[in-house]
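Case study.
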Amino acid sequence: MRDIGKLEEIARQVRIDVVTMLNAAGSGHTGGSLSATDLLVALFFGKINLDPFNPKWVRRDRFVLSKGHAAPAYYAVLSRLGFFDREELLTLRKFGSCLQGHPDCSATPGVEVCSGSLGQGLSVANGMALAARLDGLPIRVYVLLGDGEVQEGQIWEAAMSAAHFKLHNVTALLDNNKLQIDGKVEDIMNIEPLTQKWQAFGWQTIEIDGHNLAQILEALDAAEEVKDRPSIIIASTIKGKGVSIFENKVEYHGVAPTDEELAIALKELGAY
Amino acid sequence: MEKLSTRVEYGKALAELGEKHKEIVALDADLSGSTNTQRFAKVFQDRFFNMGIAEQDLMGTAAGLAVSGKIPFASTFAIFATGRGWEQIRQTIAYASLNVKIVASHGGVTVGEDGGSHQAIEDLALMRIIPNMVVLVPADGIEVRRMIEWAINYQGPVYMRTSRIPFPVIYDSEYCFTLGKGSILREGDDLCLAGIGLMVHHCLEAAELLAAEGISARVINLSTLKPLDWELVVASAQKTGALVTAEEHLVTGGLGSAVSEVLAEHCPVPLQRVGIKDVFGISGKPRDLLEHFGLMPIDIRNAARQVLKNKTRQKHLGLYQVIK
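After joint prediction, the assembly is written out as follows.
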Protein backbone atom coordinates (compact mmCIF):
# COMPACT_ATOMS: atom_id res chain seq x y z
CA MET A 1 0.00 0.00 0.00
CA ARG A 2 1.39 3.40 -0.95
CA ASP A 3 -1.40 5.69 0.28
CA ILE A 4 0.49 7.91 2.72
CA GLY A 5 -2.70 9.09 4.44
CA LYS A 6 -3.76 5.52 5.11
CA LEU A 7 -0.27 4.57 6.33
CA GLU A 8 -0.30 7.55 8.70
CA GLU A 9 -3.63 6.38 10.04
CA ILE A 10 -2.25 2.87 10.60
CA ALA A 11 0.78 4.34 12.38
CA ARG A 12 -1.53 6.32 14.65
CA GLN A 13 -3.48 3.17 15.49
CA VAL A 14 -0.29 1.22 16.10
CA ARG A 15 0.84 3.89 18.54
CA ILE A 16 -2.51 3.57 20.34
CA ASP A 17 -1.94 -0.19 20.50
CA VAL A 18 1.58 0.31 21.81
CA VAL A 19 0.71 2.59 24.72
CA THR A 20 -2.37 0.52 25.57
CA MET A 21 -0.53 -2.80 25.62
CA LEU A 22 2.42 -1.39 27.54
CA ASN A 23 0.06 0.05 30.14
CA ALA A 24 -1.66 -3.34 30.44
CA ALA A 25 1.69 -5.06 30.77
CA GLY A 26 2.91 -2.62 33.41
CA SER A 27 6.44 -2.74 32.01
CA GLY A 28 8.23 -2.50 28.69
CA HIS A 29 9.86 -0.05 26.34
CA THR A 30 7.73 2.93 25.42
CA GLY A 31 10.24 5.35 23.89
CA GLY A 32 11.93 3.03 21.40
CA SER A 33 8.64 1.42 20.34
CA LEU A 34 7.13 4.79 19.43
CA SER A 35 10.29 6.00 17.66
CA ALA A 36 10.30 2.89 15.46
CA THR A 37 6.57 2.82 14.71
CA ASP A 38 6.64 4.73 11.42
CA LEU A 39 9.57 2.68 10.12
CA LEU A 40 7.75 -0.55 10.92
CA VAL A 41 4.44 0.63 9.46
CA ALA A 42 6.01 1.84 6.20
CA LEU A 43 7.98 -1.39 5.87
CA PHE A 44 5.22 -3.84 6.75
CA PHE A 45 2.26 -2.11 5.10
CA GLY A 46 4.07 -0.43 2.21
CA LYS A 47 6.89 -2.69 1.18
CA ILE A 48 7.50 -6.12 2.58
CA ASN A 49 6.20 -9.21 0.81
CA LEU A 50 4.49 -11.46 3.37
CA ASP A 51 1.51 -13.75 3.71
CA PRO A 52 0.00 -13.70 7.22
CA PHE A 53 -2.00 -16.81 6.39
CA ASN A 54 1.16 -18.65 5.37
CA PRO A 55 3.80 -17.27 7.74
CA LYS A 56 6.46 -19.72 6.55
CA TRP A 57 5.89 -19.06 2.83
CA VAL A 58 9.34 -19.67 1.36
CA ARG A 59 9.31 -16.66 -0.98
CA ARG A 60 8.45 -14.16 1.73
CA ASP A 61 10.74 -11.26 2.53
CA ARG A 62 12.40 -11.61 5.93
CA PHE A 63 12.51 -9.22 8.84
CA VAL A 64 14.66 -9.22 11.96
CA LEU A 65 13.86 -6.89 14.85
CA SER A 66 17.40 -6.56 16.11
CA LYS A 67 16.36 -3.90 18.62
CA GLY A 68 14.12 -6.46 20.26
CA HIS A 69 12.85 -4.12 22.97
CA ALA A 70 10.67 -2.43 20.33
CA ALA A 71 8.59 -5.62 20.43
CA PRO A 72 5.30 -3.85 21.30
CA ALA A 73 5.32 -1.92 18.00
CA TYR A 74 6.33 -5.09 16.12
CA TYR A 75 3.54 -7.12 17.73
CA ALA A 76 0.98 -4.39 17.04
CA VAL A 77 1.99 -4.40 13.36
CA LEU A 78 1.92 -8.20 13.10
CA SER A 79 -1.52 -8.40 14.69
CA ARG A 80 -2.89 -5.70 12.37
CA LEU A 81 -1.53 -7.70 9.43
CA GLY A 82 -3.42 -10.73 10.72
CA PHE A 83 -0.64 -12.96 12.05
CA PHE A 84 -2.56 -13.38 15.33
CA ASP A 85 -5.64 -12.04 17.11
CA ARG A 86 -5.57 -8.48 18.30
CA GLU A 87 -6.84 -9.59 21.71
CA GLU A 88 -3.42 -11.15 22.30
CA LEU A 89 -1.88 -7.68 22.46
CA LEU A 90 -3.22 -7.13 25.97
CA THR A 91 -1.44 -10.28 27.15
CA LEU A 92 1.99 -8.77 26.38
CA ARG A 93 4.63 -9.91 28.91
CA LYS A 94 2.09 -11.88 30.92
CA PHE A 95 2.50 -15.47 32.04
CA GLY A 96 1.51 -17.87 29.29
CA SER A 97 1.31 -15.17 26.61
CA CYS A 98 2.44 -15.73 23.04
CA LEU A 99 3.89 -12.22 23.24
CA GLN A 100 7.09 -12.46 25.23
CA GLY A 101 8.85 -9.39 26.61
CA HIS A 102 11.30 -9.59 23.73
CA PRO A 103 10.64 -11.40 20.41
CA ASP A 104 10.57 -15.20 20.64
CA CYS A 105 10.06 -16.93 17.31
CA SER A 106 8.92 -20.10 19.05
CA ALA A 107 6.04 -18.21 20.64
CA THR A 108 4.78 -15.62 18.14
CA PRO A 109 3.52 -16.25 14.59
CA GLY A 110 5.35 -14.05 12.11
CA VAL A 111 8.46 -13.55 14.25
CA GLU A 112 11.43 -15.01 12.37
CA VAL A 113 14.13 -15.07 15.05
CA CYS A 114 14.62 -14.55 18.76
CA SER A 115 16.07 -11.17 19.63
CA GLY A 116 16.48 -8.88 22.58
CA SER A 117 20.16 -9.20 23.28
CA LEU A 118 21.42 -6.28 21.21
CA GLY A 119 23.85 -6.44 18.34
CA GLN A 120 22.96 -9.84 16.92
CA GLY A 121 20.25 -9.23 14.33
CA LEU A 122 22.34 -8.06 11.40
CA SER A 123 24.40 -11.26 11.42
CA VAL A 124 21.20 -13.30 11.29
CA ALA A 125 19.87 -11.17 8.44
CA ASN A 126 23.10 -11.81 6.55
CA GLY A 127 22.70 -15.55 7.05
CA MET A 128 19.15 -15.36 5.68
CA ALA A 129 20.39 -13.41 2.67
CA LEU A 130 23.16 -15.92 1.98
CA ALA A 131 20.66 -18.78 2.16
CA ALA A 132 18.33 -16.95 -0.26
CA ARG A 133 21.22 -16.47 -2.67
CA LEU A 134 22.08 -20.19 -2.53
CA ASP A 135 18.45 -21.08 -3.17
CA GLY A 136 18.02 -18.51 -5.93
CA LEU A 137 15.16 -16.82 -4.07
CA PRO A 138 14.63 -13.18 -5.06
CA ILE A 139 13.73 -12.11 -1.56
CA ARG A 140 14.83 -9.16 0.54
CA VAL A 141 15.94 -9.21 4.15
CA TYR A 142 15.21 -6.25 6.42
CA VAL A 143 16.65 -5.61 9.84
CA LEU A 144 15.77 -2.85 12.30
CA LEU A 145 18.67 -1.61 14.41
CA GLY A 146 18.73 0.86 17.28
CA ASP A 147 21.30 3.64 17.40
CA GLY A 148 22.59 2.67 20.82
CA GLU A 149 22.73 -0.89 19.54
CA VAL A 150 25.48 -0.12 17.05
CA GLN A 151 27.81 0.29 20.02
CA GLU A 152 27.94 -3.52 19.99
CA GLY A 153 31.03 -4.82 18.20
CA GLN A 154 29.14 -7.61 16.44
CA ILE A 155 27.25 -4.99 14.41
CA TRP A 156 30.51 -4.01 12.76
CA GLU A 157 31.55 -7.61 12.20
CA ALA A 158 28.24 -8.08 10.41
CA ALA A 159 28.52 -4.76 8.55
CA MET A 160 31.85 -5.97 7.24
CA SER A 161 30.60 -9.38 6.16
CA ALA A 162 27.42 -8.05 4.48
CA ALA A 163 29.59 -5.81 2.30
CA HIS A 164 32.20 -8.55 1.76
CA PHE A 165 29.54 -10.97 0.51
CA LYS A 166 27.86 -8.17 -1.50
CA LEU A 167 24.50 -8.79 0.15
CA HIS A 168 22.54 -6.20 -1.82
CA ASN A 169 19.29 -7.84 -0.71
CA VAL A 170 19.98 -6.77 2.89
CA THR A 171 18.49 -3.48 4.02
CA ALA A 172 19.10 -2.21 7.52
CA LEU A 173 16.94 0.49 9.05
CA LEU A 174 18.58 2.41 11.85
CA ASP A 175 16.18 3.99 14.33
CA ASN A 176 18.35 6.97 15.20
CA ASN A 177 16.46 8.42 18.17
CA LYS A 178 19.68 9.56 19.86
CA LEU A 179 18.81 8.29 23.35
CA GLN A 180 19.69 5.12 25.21
CA ILE A 181 18.89 3.89 28.73
CA ASP A 182 21.51 5.92 30.56
CA GLY A 183 21.20 9.14 28.55
CA LYS A 184 22.09 10.69 25.21
CA VAL A 185 23.91 8.35 22.84
CA GLU A 186 26.52 11.03 22.18
CA ASP A 187 27.26 11.29 25.91
CA ILE A 188 27.24 7.56 26.72
CA MET A 189 29.31 6.38 23.74
CA ASN A 190 29.29 8.54 20.67
CA ILE A 191 28.53 6.63 17.46
CA GLU A 192 28.87 9.51 15.00
CA PRO A 193 29.70 9.99 12.22
CA LEU A 194 27.26 7.20 11.40
CA THR A 195 26.96 7.79 7.67
CA GLN A 196 30.69 7.84 7.08
CA LYS A 197 31.14 4.72 9.21
CA TRP A 198 28.65 2.67 7.21
CA GLN A 199 30.00 4.04 3.95
CA ALA A 200 33.51 3.10 4.98
CA PHE A 201 32.26 -0.41 5.64
CA GLY A 202 31.00 -0.53 2.05
CA TRP A 203 27.30 0.21 2.44
CA GLN A 204 24.95 2.46 0.54
CA THR A 205 23.65 4.96 3.07
CA ILE A 206 20.35 6.81 2.86
CA GLU A 207 19.49 9.49 5.40
CA ILE A 208 15.85 10.32 6.03
CA ASP A 209 13.33 11.65 8.50
CA GLY A 210 12.15 8.46 10.15
CA HIS A 211 8.67 9.82 10.76
CA ASN A 212 8.03 10.82 7.15
CA LEU A 213 6.28 7.80 5.64
CA ALA A 214 6.84 8.94 2.06
CA GLN A 215 10.57 9.32 2.68
CA ILE A 216 10.76 5.90 4.31
CA LEU A 217 9.09 4.28 1.31
CA GLU A 218 11.37 6.12 -1.14
CA ALA A 219 14.40 4.98 0.84
CA LEU A 220 13.21 1.38 0.83
CA ASP A 221 12.81 1.59 -2.95
CA ALA A 222 16.26 3.16 -3.34
CA ALA A 223 17.78 0.34 -1.30
CA GLU A 224 16.35 -2.15 -3.76
CA GLU A 225 17.94 -0.40 -6.72
CA VAL A 226 21.53 -1.02 -5.66
CA LYS A 227 22.82 -4.40 -6.82
CA ASP A 228 26.36 -4.60 -5.48
CA ARG A 229 26.18 -3.75 -1.78
CA PRO A 230 23.86 -3.66 1.22
CA SER A 231 21.96 -0.52 2.14
CA ILE A 232 21.26 1.21 5.41
CA ILE A 233 18.51 3.73 5.96
CA ILE A 234 19.64 6.02 8.74
CA ALA A 235 16.35 7.36 10.01
CA SER A 236 16.34 10.37 12.25
CA THR A 237 13.60 9.77 14.81
CA ILE A 238 12.22 11.07 18.08
CA LYS A 239 12.13 8.77 21.06
CA GLY A 240 8.55 8.50 22.33
CA LYS A 241 7.23 10.07 19.09
CA GLY A 242 3.53 10.95 19.09
CA VAL A 243 3.00 11.57 22.79
CA SER A 244 4.31 14.87 24.16
CA ILE A 245 5.05 13.60 27.67
CA PHE A 246 7.23 10.77 26.28
CA GLU A 247 9.01 12.61 23.47
CA ASN A 248 12.78 12.88 23.86
CA LYS A 249 12.54 11.76 27.49
CA VAL A 250 15.22 9.29 28.42
CA GLU A 251 13.11 8.25 31.44
CA TYR A 252 10.63 6.55 29.12
CA HIS A 253 13.18 4.21 27.54
CA GLY A 254 12.11 1.25 29.59
CA VAL A 255 9.02 2.40 31.44
CA ALA A 256 5.37 1.70 30.66
CA PRO A 257 2.71 4.42 30.82
CA THR A 258 0.75 4.73 34.06
CA ASP A 259 -3.04 4.98 33.84
CA GLU A 260 -2.81 8.77 33.97
CA GLU A 261 -0.11 8.86 31.31
CA LEU A 262 -2.11 6.45 29.17
CA ALA A 263 -5.11 8.78 29.30
CA ILE A 264 -2.95 11.69 28.12
CA ALA A 265 -1.36 9.53 25.40
CA LEU A 266 -4.66 8.22 24.09
CA LYS A 267 -6.07 11.74 23.96
CA GLU A 268 -3.04 13.07 22.06
CA LEU A 269 -3.16 10.13 19.67
CA GLY A 270 -6.82 10.85 19.01
CA ALA A 271 -8.11 7.59 20.40
CA TYR A 272 -11.18 9.45 21.65
CA MET B 1 47.09 -49.35 16.86
CA GLU B 2 45.59 -47.15 14.16
CA LYS B 3 45.30 -43.50 15.11
CA LEU B 4 42.91 -40.98 13.62
CA SER B 5 42.43 -37.30 14.30
CA THR B 6 38.88 -36.38 15.20
CA ARG B 7 39.20 -32.96 13.52
CA VAL B 8 40.51 -34.50 10.30
CA GLU B 9 37.78 -37.15 10.24
CA TYR B 10 35.21 -34.36 10.78
CA GLY B 11 36.56 -32.51 7.75
CA LYS B 12 36.53 -35.62 5.61
CA ALA B 13 33.05 -36.65 6.70
CA LEU B 14 31.62 -33.19 6.05
CA ALA B 15 33.16 -33.03 2.58
CA GLU B 16 31.77 -36.48 1.74
CA LEU B 17 28.29 -35.88 3.17
CA GLY B 18 28.04 -32.52 1.44
CA GLU B 19 27.41 -34.29 -1.84
CA LYS B 20 24.32 -36.11 -0.63
CA HIS B 21 23.00 -33.36 1.62
CA LYS B 22 22.78 -30.17 -0.44
CA GLU B 23 21.44 -28.20 2.50
CA ILE B 24 24.75 -28.48 4.37
CA VAL B 25 26.77 -25.27 4.50
CA ALA B 26 29.98 -24.69 6.41
CA LEU B 27 31.29 -21.57 8.13
CA ASP B 28 34.64 -20.87 9.69
CA ALA B 29 36.45 -17.99 11.36
CA ASP B 30 39.78 -18.01 9.53
CA LEU B 31 40.83 -21.40 10.88
CA SER B 32 39.51 -23.67 8.15
CA GLY B 33 42.88 -25.34 7.67
CA SER B 34 43.04 -26.25 11.35
CA THR B 35 39.39 -27.15 11.88
CA ASN B 36 39.45 -29.03 8.55
CA THR B 37 36.38 -27.33 7.07
CA GLN B 38 38.78 -26.46 4.23
CA ARG B 39 38.11 -29.94 2.85
CA PHE B 40 34.44 -29.01 2.43
CA ALA B 41 35.36 -25.55 1.11
CA LYS B 42 37.46 -27.03 -1.69
CA VAL B 43 34.58 -29.14 -2.99
CA PHE B 44 31.65 -26.83 -2.29
CA GLN B 45 33.01 -23.32 -2.73
CA ASP B 46 29.60 -21.66 -2.89
CA ARG B 47 28.42 -23.37 0.30
CA PHE B 48 31.39 -22.34 2.41
CA PHE B 49 31.60 -18.99 4.17
CA ASN B 50 34.79 -17.81 5.76
CA MET B 51 33.57 -15.17 8.20
CA GLY B 52 37.02 -13.89 9.08
CA ILE B 53 38.13 -13.46 12.66
CA ALA B 54 34.64 -12.70 13.92
CA GLU B 55 33.12 -15.48 15.99
CA GLN B 56 30.00 -13.61 17.05
CA ASP B 57 29.11 -12.88 13.44
CA LEU B 58 29.96 -16.51 12.63
CA MET B 59 27.32 -17.76 15.07
CA GLY B 60 24.72 -15.19 14.03
CA THR B 61 25.16 -15.89 10.33
CA ALA B 62 24.91 -19.61 11.00
CA ALA B 63 21.62 -18.90 12.79
CA GLY B 64 20.29 -16.99 9.79
CA LEU B 65 21.23 -19.83 7.45
CA ALA B 66 19.53 -22.32 9.78
CA VAL B 67 16.22 -20.43 9.93
CA SER B 68 16.28 -20.48 6.14
CA GLY B 69 16.47 -24.28 6.03
CA LYS B 70 20.21 -24.82 5.71
CA ILE B 71 22.22 -27.12 7.95
CA PRO B 72 25.13 -24.92 8.96
CA PHE B 73 28.29 -26.45 10.41
CA ALA B 74 30.11 -23.62 12.20
CA SER B 75 33.70 -24.31 13.15
CA THR B 76 36.57 -22.61 14.87
CA PHE B 77 38.77 -23.42 17.86
CA ALA B 78 36.73 -24.61 20.84
CA ILE B 79 37.76 -21.76 23.10
CA PHE B 80 36.70 -19.08 20.62
CA ALA B 81 33.52 -20.82 19.51
CA THR B 82 32.23 -21.21 23.04
CA GLY B 83 33.84 -18.14 24.58
CA ARG B 84 33.52 -15.40 21.98
CA GLY B 85 30.22 -16.75 20.67
CA TRP B 86 28.58 -17.95 23.89
CA GLU B 87 25.87 -15.34 24.11
CA GLN B 88 25.12 -15.57 20.40
CA ILE B 89 24.81 -19.33 20.80
CA ARG B 90 22.51 -18.88 23.78
CA GLN B 91 20.32 -16.04 22.53
CA THR B 92 20.02 -16.62 18.83
CA ILE B 93 20.75 -20.31 18.28
CA ALA B 94 19.72 -22.32 21.34
CA TYR B 95 16.80 -20.16 22.54
CA ALA B 96 14.99 -20.90 19.28
CA SER B 97 16.53 -24.39 19.05
CA LEU B 98 17.97 -23.57 15.64
CA ASN B 99 19.54 -26.29 13.56
CA VAL B 100 23.14 -25.13 13.91
CA LYS B 101 25.96 -27.65 14.35
CA ILE B 102 28.94 -26.16 16.13
CA VAL B 103 31.92 -28.43 15.60
CA ALA B 104 34.80 -26.93 17.51
CA SER B 105 38.34 -28.18 17.13
CA HIS B 106 41.36 -27.91 19.43
CA GLY B 107 39.54 -28.89 22.59
CA GLY B 108 41.50 -29.47 25.78
CA VAL B 109 45.16 -29.05 26.69
CA THR B 110 46.49 -31.28 23.91
CA VAL B 111 46.37 -28.15 21.73
CA GLY B 112 49.87 -27.95 23.19
CA GLU B 113 52.41 -25.27 22.45
CA ASP B 114 49.98 -22.39 21.86
CA GLY B 115 49.42 -22.36 25.61
CA GLY B 116 46.62 -21.50 27.98
CA SER B 117 44.97 -18.88 25.76
CA HIS B 118 44.16 -21.52 23.15
CA GLN B 119 43.38 -24.50 25.35
CA ALA B 120 39.63 -24.92 25.83
CA ILE B 121 39.13 -26.43 29.26
CA GLU B 122 35.75 -24.79 29.93
CA ASP B 123 33.93 -25.36 26.64
CA LEU B 124 31.91 -28.38 27.74
CA ALA B 125 30.67 -26.56 30.85
CA LEU B 126 29.74 -23.51 28.78
CA MET B 127 27.72 -25.58 26.32
CA ARG B 128 26.26 -28.08 28.78
CA ILE B 129 24.56 -25.32 30.74
CA ILE B 130 22.57 -24.03 27.74
CA PRO B 131 19.02 -25.42 27.36
CA ASN B 132 18.29 -27.26 24.09
CA MET B 133 21.99 -27.83 23.43
CA VAL B 134 23.33 -31.31 22.70
CA VAL B 135 26.99 -31.78 23.71
CA LEU B 136 29.08 -34.49 22.08
CA VAL B 137 32.70 -35.53 22.62
CA PRO B 138 33.74 -38.29 20.21
CA ALA B 139 36.21 -40.90 21.42
CA ASP B 140 37.70 -41.69 18.03
CA GLY B 141 37.61 -40.98 14.32
CA ILE B 142 34.86 -43.50 13.67
CA GLU B 143 32.60 -41.97 16.30
CA VAL B 144 33.09 -38.50 14.79
CA ARG B 145 31.73 -39.73 11.47
CA ARG B 146 28.74 -41.41 13.07
CA MET B 147 28.02 -38.26 15.07
CA ILE B 148 28.18 -36.05 11.98
CA GLU B 149 25.85 -38.40 10.09
CA TRP B 150 23.49 -38.34 13.05
CA ALA B 151 23.68 -34.55 13.48
CA ILE B 152 22.60 -33.95 9.87
CA ASN B 153 19.35 -35.76 10.56
CA TYR B 154 18.80 -34.26 14.01
CA GLN B 155 16.79 -31.03 14.17
CA GLY B 156 18.37 -28.71 16.73
CA PRO B 157 21.60 -27.23 18.02
CA VAL B 158 24.59 -29.49 18.57
CA TYR B 159 28.02 -28.78 20.02
CA MET B 160 30.76 -31.26 19.17
CA ARG B 161 34.35 -31.06 20.35
CA THR B 162 37.21 -32.38 18.24
CA SER B 163 40.89 -32.59 19.10
CA ARG B 164 44.10 -31.44 17.52
CA ILE B 165 46.08 -34.61 18.17
CA PRO B 166 45.22 -38.02 16.69
CA PHE B 167 44.31 -40.81 19.07
CA PRO B 168 43.67 -44.54 18.76
CA VAL B 169 40.62 -45.98 17.05
CA ILE B 170 38.44 -48.09 19.33
CA TYR B 171 35.29 -48.61 17.29
CA ASP B 172 34.92 -50.57 14.07
CA SER B 173 32.94 -49.41 11.07
CA GLU B 174 29.83 -51.19 12.38
CA TYR B 175 29.61 -48.75 15.31
CA CYS B 176 26.22 -47.12 15.70
CA PHE B 177 25.87 -43.77 17.49
CA THR B 178 22.70 -43.16 19.50
CA LEU B 179 22.04 -39.82 21.20
CA GLY B 180 22.05 -40.14 24.96
CA LYS B 181 23.57 -43.61 24.97
CA GLY B 182 27.01 -44.39 26.28
CA SER B 183 28.80 -47.63 25.54
CA ILE B 184 30.48 -50.26 27.67
CA LEU B 185 33.96 -50.88 26.27
CA ARG B 186 35.17 -53.29 28.94
CA GLU B 187 33.39 -55.18 31.67
CA GLY B 188 34.48 -55.11 35.29
CA ASP B 189 33.04 -55.43 38.78
CA ASP B 190 35.17 -53.46 41.22
CA LEU B 191 34.68 -49.97 39.86
CA CYS B 192 33.73 -48.08 36.72
CA LEU B 193 35.96 -45.73 34.72
CA ALA B 194 33.91 -43.25 32.71
CA GLY B 195 35.66 -41.17 30.08
CA ILE B 196 35.12 -38.85 27.14
CA GLY B 197 37.31 -38.06 24.14
CA LEU B 198 40.97 -38.93 24.41
CA MET B 199 40.46 -39.91 28.04
CA VAL B 200 38.43 -42.95 27.03
CA HIS B 201 41.72 -44.46 25.83
CA HIS B 202 43.45 -43.55 29.02
CA CYS B 203 40.62 -45.25 30.91
CA LEU B 204 41.17 -48.40 28.85
CA GLU B 205 44.90 -48.28 29.59
CA ALA B 206 44.20 -47.63 33.27
CA ALA B 207 41.91 -50.67 33.32
CA GLU B 208 44.87 -52.73 32.10
CA LEU B 209 47.07 -51.35 34.88
CA LEU B 210 44.36 -52.15 37.42
CA ALA B 211 43.88 -55.66 36.02
CA ALA B 212 47.56 -56.29 36.71
CA GLU B 213 46.79 -55.47 40.35
CA GLY B 214 43.83 -57.83 40.39
CA ILE B 215 41.24 -55.04 40.16
CA SER B 216 38.52 -55.37 37.56
CA ALA B 217 37.27 -52.11 36.08
CA ARG B 218 34.30 -51.50 33.84
CA VAL B 219 35.11 -48.84 31.21
CA ILE B 220 32.39 -46.73 29.65
CA ASN B 221 32.42 -44.03 26.98
CA LEU B 222 29.97 -41.22 27.77
CA SER B 223 30.45 -39.43 24.46
CA THR B 224 27.00 -37.88 24.72
CA LEU B 225 27.80 -35.51 27.55
CA LYS B 226 24.34 -34.01 27.18
CA PRO B 227 21.89 -35.66 27.33
CA LEU B 228 23.95 -37.90 29.61
CA ASP B 229 23.25 -41.63 29.68
CA TRP B 230 22.26 -41.47 33.33
CA GLU B 231 20.82 -44.97 33.24
CA LEU B 232 24.24 -46.36 32.31
CA VAL B 233 25.88 -44.22 35.01
CA VAL B 234 23.44 -45.47 37.66
CA ALA B 235 23.66 -49.06 36.46
CA SER B 236 27.46 -48.85 36.61
CA ALA B 237 27.31 -47.38 40.10
CA GLN B 238 24.92 -50.11 41.22
CA LYS B 239 27.07 -52.83 39.73
CA THR B 240 30.49 -51.65 40.86
CA GLY B 241 29.82 -49.28 43.76
CA ALA B 242 32.51 -46.76 42.72
CA LEU B 243 33.24 -44.47 39.77
CA VAL B 244 36.08 -42.47 38.30
CA THR B 245 35.42 -39.86 35.64
CA ALA B 246 38.14 -38.73 33.23
CA GLU B 247 38.05 -35.68 30.98
CA GLU B 248 40.42 -33.27 29.26
CA HIS B 249 38.53 -30.38 30.84
CA LEU B 250 38.12 -28.72 34.19
CA VAL B 251 36.64 -31.12 36.74
CA THR B 252 33.95 -28.50 37.29
CA GLY B 253 31.14 -28.20 34.80
CA GLY B 254 32.05 -31.07 32.51
CA LEU B 255 31.80 -34.85 32.75
CA GLY B 256 32.80 -35.03 36.41
CA SER B 257 30.07 -32.59 37.33
CA ALA B 258 27.47 -34.27 35.14
CA VAL B 259 28.16 -37.70 36.63
CA SER B 260 28.27 -36.25 40.18
CA GLU B 261 24.83 -34.73 39.67
CA VAL B 262 23.36 -38.05 38.54
CA LEU B 263 24.99 -40.05 41.31
CA ALA B 264 24.05 -37.58 44.04
CA GLU B 265 20.41 -37.83 43.07
CA HIS B 266 20.11 -41.49 42.13
CA CYS B 267 22.90 -43.60 43.56
CA PRO B 268 25.46 -41.86 45.75
CA VAL B 269 28.59 -44.01 45.60
CA PRO B 270 32.22 -42.90 45.99
CA LEU B 271 33.46 -40.89 43.01
CA GLN B 272 36.82 -39.46 41.97
CA ARG B 273 37.08 -36.94 39.15
CA VAL B 274 40.18 -36.92 36.96
CA GLY B 275 40.51 -33.64 35.11
CA ILE B 276 42.07 -30.20 35.36
CA LYS B 277 41.79 -28.65 38.81
CA ASP B 278 40.91 -24.94 38.58
CA VAL B 279 44.02 -23.79 36.73
CA PHE B 280 44.68 -22.55 33.20
CA GLY B 281 46.74 -24.40 30.61
CA ILE B 282 50.38 -23.76 29.79
CA SER B 283 52.60 -24.29 26.74
CA GLY B 284 54.20 -27.65 26.17
CA LYS B 285 54.03 -30.85 24.20
CA PRO B 286 50.66 -32.60 24.50
CA ARG B 287 52.11 -35.57 26.36
CA ASP B 288 53.97 -33.36 28.82
CA LEU B 289 50.77 -31.44 29.45
CA LEU B 290 48.72 -34.59 29.99
CA GLU B 291 51.28 -35.63 32.60
CA HIS B 292 51.45 -32.15 34.16
CA PHE B 293 47.69 -31.92 34.58
CA GLY B 294 47.32 -35.47 35.86
CA LEU B 295 45.43 -36.85 32.89
CA MET B 296 47.51 -39.97 32.20
CA PRO B 297 46.38 -43.58 32.66
CA ILE B 298 48.46 -43.77 35.81
CA ASP B 299 46.52 -40.83 37.25
CA ILE B 300 43.26 -42.64 36.54
CA ARG B 301 44.71 -45.74 38.21
CA ASN B 302 45.61 -43.67 41.27
CA ALA B 303 42.12 -42.19 41.38
CA ALA B 304 40.75 -45.73 41.09
CA ARG B 305 42.81 -46.85 44.08
CA GLN B 306 41.50 -43.90 46.10
CA VAL B 307 37.88 -44.47 45.12
CA LEU B 308 38.16 -48.14 46.06
CA LYS B 309 39.44 -47.13 49.51
CA ASN B 310 36.47 -44.80 49.90
CA LYS B 311 34.13 -47.52 48.72
CA THR B 312 35.43 -49.95 51.35
CA ARG B 313 35.12 -47.32 54.05
CA GLN B 314 31.58 -46.40 53.04
CA LYS B 315 30.50 -50.00 52.82
CA HIS B 316 31.99 -50.59 56.26
CA LEU B 317 30.04 -47.64 57.65
CA GLY B 318 26.93 -48.71 55.80
CA LEU B 319 26.72 -45.30 54.14
CA TYR B 320 26.06 -46.09 50.56
CA GLN B 321 22.75 -47.20 49.26
CA VAL B 322 20.92 -47.26 46.00
CA ILE B 323 18.14 -44.72 45.70
CA LYS B 324 15.47 -45.92 43.31
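Observations recorded in class. Residues 208 and 235 of chain A are 5 Å apart (CA to CA). Residues 4-25 of chain A form the longest helix (22 residues). We will return to this complex in the next lecture.
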